[in-house]
Write a structure and sequence with these properties.
- By secondary structure, this protein is mostly helical.
- It has ten helices and no strands.
- The radius of gyration is 27 Å and the shape is elongated.
Length: about 220
């Protein structure tokens, strides 16, 4: 019986080529902006879904980096959240200073400070969503409370410094007002998140009166 010499059809070759052809594997590199992209992705996803409902894979995918590279820059989602908070805080501060300069062109700092905070807070609700994610994390993980304490202290110091520069108040009073401002802005922002249509202008104005109120004389 003669040997079979017929070659497989070209259709067969094409089919086999399609099956055996390897797709190019995506390679990941340590680019300079990987960390920044992860923070941006974290800002978007964590403020929208919360830390528990967001996975590392989702963050890495949105940032266009590998999950392995995520862990090169951040030990955990908790650590990323803290980095996101500091970056978001810097953006919020920049927007707040711009709003203050705009409002202070015709009125004094004491008249517009909290109104500027109210305006920027309404425009940047994600910033406060992230803050409350961080607070909840600290309540669940006591080891994380010290990092939250450092963040709050930095915020109070920044507010107190601005008050001293703008109002000429002594350090003790500026720090006391800063602590109240810090607590009130967080609380008012939470109410705004829960009730987006709520008008809290009068509440912000009431807090603002602290800047012009005379300190209680010592007995």
């Amino acid at each position: 019986m003669p040997a079979l010499t017929k070659r497989p059809s070209s259709r067969y070759h094409i089919c086999m080529d399609d099956q055996t052809e390897k797709k190019p594997k995506k390679t990941w590199t340590h680019q300079r902006d990987n960390r920044e992209r992860l923070i941006d992705a974290g800002y978007s996803l964590l403020s929208e879904k919360g830390i528990d409902a967001t996975t590392v894979k989702e963050i890495a995918r949105k940032a266009d980096v590998s999950p392995g590279l995520f862990h090169y820059y951040f030990a955990s989602k908790d650590e990323l959240l803290l980095a996101v908070i500091y970056e978001a805080g810097a953006r919020f501060h920049q927007q707040l200073m711009q709003e203050l300069r705009k409002l202070s062109s015709e009125r004094t700092f004491a008249d517009v400070a909290m109104l500027a905070v109210a305006t920027v807070s309404r425009e940047h609700t994600a910033w406060y969503r992230l803050r409350y994610e961080l607070y909840a994390l600290g309540l669940r993980n006591p080891d994380f409370l010290s990092a939250i304490g450092e963040m709050l202290a930095k915020g109070r110091e920044g507010i107190a410094q601005t008050i001293q520069e703008q109002m000429g108040l002594d350090e003790t009073r500026a720090q006391a007002i800063a602590a109240v401002f810090h607590a009130c802005t967080d609380g008012l922002a939470l109410q705004q998140l829960a009730q987006p249509g709520l008008d809290l202008t009068a509440a912000y104005e009431l807090v603002q009166h602290l800047l012009s109120a005379e300190p209680t004389p010592e007995k």
